[in-house]
């Protein structure tokens, strides 16, 4: 009987301790720290526009013209025939003034519009040339999932971080003679 009584008391004590542990955990608390980082503001300025130069197309000849953002070289690819490129070319250039020294910013291209013929010869309807493949001479980041983007490390301290932009225009061979213009937006923000 003594043995049975001791076992019963031990079981009751064990069950009571389990109940108290559960109640204590339900009333437990923990703290966490909070952080914020203040960064210097910066200003993005466009210095020059993107200029592909003059292009001569054979009728019905599709192709592309690409400007390399690193060295400004122009590649004229006729695909099914010759494309003749001439005239002055120029990369679009931008400056980021200020910002926190050594911090990384992300460079994205948005609101890219096709080039539209605003001065059509012969009274034809406006034509368009596709503007795409916007690139910069800064570091390309390709995450495992998601969209690729470019980054730059800020010089800061009152100095500027400069970068240039190139891209590709595509022709279907039905474009009419004239001057084609369009635009694109460069967005820069801290990572």
TrEMBL record:
Signal sequence, renumbered to the chain: 1-26
Tree of life domain: Bacteria
Protein's UniProt keywords contain Signal: yes
Protein keywords: Signal
Pfam families referenced in this protein's UniProt entry, alphabetically: DUF4402
Keyword hit for Signal: yes
Name assigned to this protein: DUF4402 domain-containing protein
Lineage, broadest ranks: Bacteria, Pseudomonadati, Pseudomonadota, Alphaproteobacteria, Sphingomonadales
């Amino acid at each position: 009987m003594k043995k049975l009584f001791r076992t019963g008391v031990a079981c009751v004590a064990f069950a009571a301790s389990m109940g108290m542990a559960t109640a204590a955990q339900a009333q437990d608390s923990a703290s966490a720290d909070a952080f914020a980082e203040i960064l210097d503001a910066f200003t993005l300025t466009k210095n020059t526009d993107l200029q592909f130069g003059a292009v001569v197309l054979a009728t019905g000849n599709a192709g592309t013209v690409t400007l390399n953002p690193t060295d400004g070289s122009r590649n004229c690819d006729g695909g099914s025939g010759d494309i003749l490129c001439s005239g002055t070319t120029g990369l679009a250039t931008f400056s980021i003034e200020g910002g926190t020294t050594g911090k990384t910013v992300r460079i994205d291209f948005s609101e890219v519009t096709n080039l539209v013929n605003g001065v059509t010869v012969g009274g034809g309807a406006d034509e368009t040339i596709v503007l795409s493949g916007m690139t910069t001479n800064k570091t390309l980041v390709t995450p495992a999932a998601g969209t690729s983007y470019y980054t730059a490390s800020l010089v800061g301290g009152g100095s500027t971080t400069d970068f240039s932009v190139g891209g590709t225009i595509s022709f279907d061979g039905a474009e009419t003679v004239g001057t084609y213009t369009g635009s694109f937006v460069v967005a820069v923000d801290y990572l």
